[in-house]
Amino acid sequence: MSEAKTTSVADLPKVELHLHLDCSMSFEAVAALVPGMTRERYRSEFLAPKKCANLVDYFRYLAAPLAFLQTGYALRVATMDLMRQLAEDNVIYAEIRFAPHLHQREGLRSDEVVEIVLAALDEGKTLYPIEARLILCTLRPDDTAQGFDILALAEKYAARGVGGIDLAGDEAGYGLAEHIPVFRRAADRGVNVTAHAGEAAGAESVAEVVAKLGVRRIGHGVRSIEDPAVIDLLLEHGVHLEVCPSCNIQIDVFRTYADHPVDRLRKSGIPLSINTDARGPTDLTLRQEYQRLDAVFGWTTREFVAANLNAINASFLAESLRTKFSNALIEFVSASETTP
Length: 340
Ligand SMILES: [Zn+2]
Description:
By secondary structure, this protein is of the alpha/beta class. Helix content is 50%, strand content 15%.
């Protein structure tokens, strides 16, 4: 692997569809909010070990940021911090997700939480050349009423920058029953949807969200590789997978990077994108993830551009903006190919 090749793939303009606001705080942002924070304390409380026992074990490291992401000021700092990280990563478009009801411990209403993050996003857009949308999460094991509240917020703030809703949380511990009415209503109202599946649970969980939630975009979905029938199902419905390799390895879904099925999924023809999921606990940039894919699977500009075009195509952007970002990416690549 030549240095020039590494630099070129890592420096590509990037699109990121799957990253969590509350799981993406840098040391600088935490230090701005928590008096006396040291790098050692950040490392032990905010960064998960390189190997966790499973997803629920990893969730323990989300408690620390959530403890103080309960005020307008803290939410603004976290959002602006993430926009800065995205700019440094050369991300041109991002969909940032979070669960508003996890930020209400000190009295904020869920609509206030969304408005605060939207305002910070707008502020970030004036400082950095990034377009962004929010995705609002309902969680396993939230109930149906909670999901309806999230859906109503997504509709209320669609014009302000909320792109859709997501189902996140403990996939292996809870089923879908409470969420089916929410996703049905989302379909009726034309609200965009995605759902986490096929990470902590197997291929059957992927088939379940396609059949019961009607999603055409899935967070992870990587354990589809366990069942050729599920791969066929994804191909048949044109389902996009938001793949986050390093996170999957950290929660021990796969032992090593070389064991990860991302390249086999790509070769099967499933449209997929590459994402960080959690820049905080996983201590990761998208640039580093690209370098790992280059080093382990030999991905070149061709594979990364394809993944980014897939991401734009599966994004919750309006058609005109999808065209704009696709053209920007294609123009960047053609310009760099003609530069000596
Ligand atoms: Zn996620």
